[in-house]
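Page header: ASSEMBLY MODEL / three components / 1002 residues total.
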Amino acid sequence: MRLSEVAALVAGKLENGNQFVEIAGIQDLQAARENEAAFLSNMRLKHQFNDSRAGVVLLGSAMFPDTDRTVIRVDDPYLAFATLQRHFYPEGKSTGSRSEAAFVDPSARLADDVDIAPMAVIGPNVEIGSGSRIGSGCVIEAGAVIGCNCLLHARAVVGGNCILGDRVILQPGAIIGADGFGYAWSGKEHLKIPQVGRVVIEDDVEIGANTCVDRGAIGDTLIERGAKLDNLIQIAHNVRIGACSIMASQVGISGSTLIGKGCQIGGQVGIAGHLNIGDGCKLAAKSGVMSDLKAGGTYGGAPAMPHRQWLKVLALTARLPEIWSSLSREHNRD
Amino acid sequence: MRLSEVAALVAGKLENGNQFVEIAGIQDLQAARENEAAFLSNMRLKHQFNDSRAGVVLLGSAMFPDTDRTVIRVDDPYLAFATLQRHFYPEGKSTGSRSEAAFVDPSARLADDVDIAPMAVIGPNVEIGSGSRIGSGCVIEAGAVIGCNCLLHARAVVGGNCILGDRVILQPGAIIGADGFGYAWSGKEHLKIPQVGRVVIEDDVEIGANTCVDRGAIGDTLIERGAKLDNLIQIAHNVRIGACSIMASQVGISGSTLIGKGCQIGGQVGIAGHLNIGDGCKLAAKSGVMSDLKAGGTYGGAPAMPHRQWLKVLALTARLPEIWSSLSREHNRD
Amino acid sequence: MRLSEVAALVAGKLENGNQFVEIAGIQDLQAARENEAAFLSNMRLKHQFNDSRAGVVLLGSAMFPDTDRTVIRVDDPYLAFATLQRHFYPEGKSTGSRSEAAFVDPSARLADDVDIAPMAVIGPNVEIGSGSRIGSGCVIEAGAVIGCNCLLHARAVVGGNCILGDRVILQPGAIIGADGFGYAWSGKEHLKIPQVGRVVIEDDVEIGANTCVDRGAIGDTLIERGAKLDNLIQIAHNVRIGACSIMASQVGISGSTLIGKGCQIGGQVGIAGHLNIGDGCKLAAKSGVMSDLKAGGTYGGAPAMPHRQWLKVLALTARLPEIWSSLSREHNRD
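Prediction written out in full:
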């Protein structure tokens, strides 16, 4: 791929370079070789720019304005990296291969080009749309519906009657549609409440490895289009995750909580049940949310508070020993 | 099901209704239609009562005393809901179906009516009691014993020699009997200590999706009857969980800790090793427990403290910036 | 095994005992019988020493100096216990058994003595070295390389092109090589960045049940030799874990963070991305790390601070209500 083509693909401007030079791939600044592109988006890695052997660097317009290196100026170097990487590694396609070592119930309806890997189990009345690929050891239970061009990695589970839209990705071990956690205390035992809702996952959602999304108790648990969930996350029954929200690993969302659209939730955050988290909220890692949060806010701490207040609280908390000594000294002086 | 039958089933009193009206199912207040029941147990949803189209609402005796809606008065609406839902969705039964796509070791002893789904693996000398159902892709290792009427969902693992009582439910991906985490430092490497104990799970226990219960290092890890564990929980070697204790997702219990009976443990709680948590303790979400806790107490925070003290600490911590400004002002005035 | 042989194996000194007495195994102090050894390493269990029926107790040189019980004096009783337990329970060996209920791609290259359990899937061009054992339902994807004498428990996953050294243990459900969590915001959606790096796991590493180690975005994620990871841990893309580091369950390490050698990381710790944690760091359970940490330090809290400071902060935080009352009283008196 020529430099001129790279620049066109990422809508950038080539500086100090020969447009006919060929680029074979993309790497990080430290590892890139002369025939590879690199990118600089994390300012912590700025010092690597000068030493990099990369043939070209994707760079923001204001960075190193006087450099004589070959660079391509772009608005968002990380997005440019993503675009280029997606060009070099296009998504796989299904081939219609069906392993004889899989089990497919005769009542399942699969598009002709669906791939089924060894040891997968496709239950009764399952429907799978065109272009979808079902990985080794996956279990798709009775009546589940999987859209087109989905990619289910090894050992993912889709429970009975759950619905996946198009282009949904399940990483290995993801579990969609386990029972929600619901009991009523009878006076001598916890009576299990049948969990009869479904999980509905809209288009372009990705679910991380070993993440669990429980089915609704009565109605459905819903993950709206474009949401991205990392590994080892717990989504309880009847939660709704808004479109394009993104959450880091080990987050836990309790039952019936509504997360707005475009939220960003850090790792190990916990959110109590029956809450309303507004659109576009940002939550720092390890936050604990015990009440509704207004749209557009940034929060931290447990219980969560506005981020600025939280930073002040953290600073003062760390200084408590010093403050206390000073107060004690003053008191004694009095 | 007639209203009179519903009232009888939940031991409630029908008000303002025709006992011959038929009810087809149960829903939440917002979704319920004229031929469905609903219930009101969470007071946060009180405002939905008047607008609900439900044919009947299961209601506590003191709520909306003057309503002219059709209601059934009960002591505990949530328990009544559970009872009714269990009536409409009775538990499944095994049918004795054995998938030819499963692997059953010839030395395994299975009751005639046990179900084995595709891709399940039943190892040597395993015993499985009457009425139990083994889901797709489950692995039951050598010498494990599973009682009667158990339900193992897809891809659950029961390790060698582990014991499950009757009516145990394993959600998908649950792992019973992985090795405990035990090493001794030799001066140059971590020497693995063989983990030779078992996991023993008593009757009526439910274990959540992708939850891990490790086998004992020497003796056993024990989950007593009626305990309920949510998803993604870690139970380390030689822990004992008391009868009817219940814990929310992503809790972690370190080695050899004893949890009493009837405890309630919130999400993402961590408990250190070799501790004693008394019967009936309640722990707020995200608590971190570093010492023994007395029976019957309610605790929060990390390290955990009595709940009242914790609430005061939280309130003051959030006010630290304000308190500090006021102290500084005073000091400067002096 | 005679007492004299036990003493020789653990490099200890037999006191008050007959060297010809036979020992059949090892137990904890409370459960041990006359023909069994026990050990005392956790001083919290000191009170169990006198009542134990154990035939011999492995004991530190300074403990109970005047006891007339049969003891073997050793430098490190826990290490002695490990050594003895490893003697009584030697590691299993592969036998070359290949289940007909497994799927092995014809292009895979397996040493003759490799064991393959039922329902395992071995993909194209996989290599597995001598003595390795692949458990039931494991999935080894295309091009992965597994060294010698590895033990993969039930349902572990090794993703495409990932590398395992020798004597690596994967507990059940461990997932090596899921996609890292990387997206670029296009202005209207999260564009997935292809994750094209690998996971490289060196010799003698153990990975816990349902733990996830993601593949690198471009370069590799690396777990150095002898590191031990407990259950339900999240290791993000391009993380490096130093040799012999050990981490308890439910830890989460964000992308590109480097953990030094010989670190000890407590349960539920979270570490932000792109950080440098120096060699030999110790982190208290539930710590949250938001900046680089110097080698050799002990830290706690969120955000993490030196352990001594943290203990003072905790003590003062718990006393805030009392301090506040006292300040208010003083103020009013003024």
